[in-house]
Design brief:
single chain, alpha/beta, Rossmann fold, UDP-galactose 4-epimerase, domain 1, 2 domains, seven-stranded parallel beta sheet, two-stranded parallel ribbon, 10 helices, 13 strands, globular, binds nicotinamide-adenine-dinucleotide
C-alpha cells in the first residue's frame, strides 16, 4: 500500500515506518524534525520535511501522491506545555489533522490511523480504563486528541473515510526522547547510563501502563487491514509503579544509587492502565514484550547510545 506517515522521524512512528517498510509497503514520511531525528527515518522511505500546520505544503503532498492510507503520528505531545499554551497544542493537534482531512476527502483514501492517547483520555478513574467509558480528558492535550477522534468520526460519516484511533498507554522503547516530560523509562535510562541520578516526582507509588514500541508498531500493522472503525486501547492492563521502573532500570544498568524524591507534579494521575480486550477481539492484538525484558532492552540501548554520542 502507498502510505503517508506523519511524524515518522519521531520515536513511535519511526518504528511504525520500519514495520510498514518491512511488510513491503511504500512509505512516505512527513515530519518537521522538531523532535524527530533524520537518523531514525527508514532509508527505504521517502522523506518530505514539512510542518502539518502548513496547509499548502501538507495538502499539496496528499493531493499529488494520493496515498491509500495516512498514519497520523505528528503531534505536540507535551501534556504540561499544553496547559501553558493550549493554542499551540490545538494548532498542531487539531488544525494539523483538519489540514490533512480536508485534502484526504478529495482522494480515494482507504483509511486514516490516528495515534491517540489512553493515558490522557479517561481522567482520574478506577483502573483499568475501557473504551466504553466517556472521555474525560484533564489537559488540553487530551482534549485535542479527543477532538481529533470526533473529527475523524465526522469525516467517516460525511465522506466515508474509515479510521482507527489507537489509544496508546505509556509507550517506551529505543529512540524515545529522554528530554521530554514523560517517558520515565527513557529519562531514568539515559541519566543512570551517564552515572547521573534522576529525580522521582512524588513518592514513586503512582502507576502507569507501559507498552513496548514494537507492540505498538504491530498494532499499527494490524490496523491497516481491519474493517473496524473507531477507537481501540493499546496497552497491557498492567500497572507498574515508578519505584519499580527505577529498580528495574538500575538493575539492568548495574547501578545502585539510592532513590531521590521530589514533590509530586501537579495533575499527575495516581494510577493508569488500559483494558485491551477490544483490540484483542478486533485486531487479534496483544502485547508480546514483558516489562522486565523491555526495560532491559531500552536500558542497554541508552547505554550504547550514550557511548556513541559521547
Ligand atoms: N509516547 C507515548 O507514550 C504516547 C502515548 C500516547 C500517544 N502518543 C502519540 O504518539 C505520537 C508520537 O509520539 P512520540 O512519543 O513518538 O513523540 P515524538 O516527539 O518522538 O514524535 C512526534 C513526531 O512528530 C513530529 N512533529 C511534531 N510536530 C510536527 C508538525 N507540526 N509537523 C510535522 N511534524 C511534526 C516531530 O518532529 C516528531 O518526529 C503523538 O501523536 C503522540 O501524541 C504517544
Amino acid at each position: 500500500m502507498k502510505i503517508l506517515i506523519t511524524g515518522g522521524a519521531g520515536f513511535i512512528a519511526s518504528h511504525v515506518a520500519d514495520a510498514y517498510v518491512q511488510a513491503g509497503h511504500q512509505v512516505t514520511i512527513a515530519d518537521n524534525l522538531s523532535t524527530g531525528k533524520l537518523e531514525y527515518i527508514n532509508p527505504a522511505a521517502t522523506f518530505v520535511k514539512l510542518d502539518i500546520t502548513d496547509q499548502v505544503a501538507i495538502q499539496e503532498l496528499i493531493l499529488r501522491e494520493r496515498f491509500e492510507v495516512i498514519n497520523h503520528h505528528a503531534a505536540h505531545i507535551l501534556v504540561g506545555h499544553s496547559v501553558v499554551d493550549p493554542q499551540f497544542d490545538a494548532q498542531t493537534n487539531i488544525m494539523g489533522l483538519l489540514n490533512i482531512m480536508e485534502a484526504a476527502k478529495q482522494i480515494p483514501i482507504k483509511k486514516i490511523i490516528l495515534a491517540a492517547t489512553g493515558g490522557a483520555m479517561y481522567g482520574n478513574r478506577a483502573t483499568p480504563f475501557v473504551e466504553t467509558m466517556p472521555a474525560l480528558p484533564e489537559s488540553p492535550y487530551g482534549v485535542s486528541k479527543r477532538a481529533d477522534e470526533l473529527y475523524l468520526n465526522y469525516y467517516f460519516k460525511q465522506y466515508q473515510i474509515p479510521y482507527v484511533s489507537l489509544r496508546y498507554s505509556n509507550v517506551y522503547g529505543p529512540r524515545q526522547n529522554p528530554h521530554g516530560e514523560s517517558g520515565v523509562i527513557a529519562i531514568f535510562s539515559e541519566a543512570l547510563a551517564k552515572g547521573q541520578q534522576p529525580i522521582i516526582h512524588g513518592d514513586g507509588t503512582n502507576t502507569r501502563d507501559y507498552v513496548y514500541v514494537s507492540d505498538v508498531a504491530a498494532a499499527n500493522l494490524l490496523a491497516l487491514t481491519t474493517q473496524f472503525v473507531g477507537e481501540l486501547n493499546i496497552g497491557t492492563q498492567t500497572e507498574i509503579s515508578t519505584n519499580e521502573v527505577y529498580d528495574l532500570v538500575a538493575q539492568a544498568l548495574r547501578v545502585n544509587f539510592p532513590k531521590q524524591y521530589d514533590a509530586p507534579r501537579p495533575g499527575d494521575v495516581m494510577a493508569s492502565s488500559l483494558d485491551f480486550t477490544k483490540a484483542k477481539e478486533i485486531l487479534g492484538w496483544q502485547p508480546q514484550i514483558d516489562f522486565a525484558t523491555g526495560v532491559k532492552q531500552v536500558a542497554e540501548w541508552y547505554q550504547t547510545f550514550n557511548v556513541v554520542q559521547g
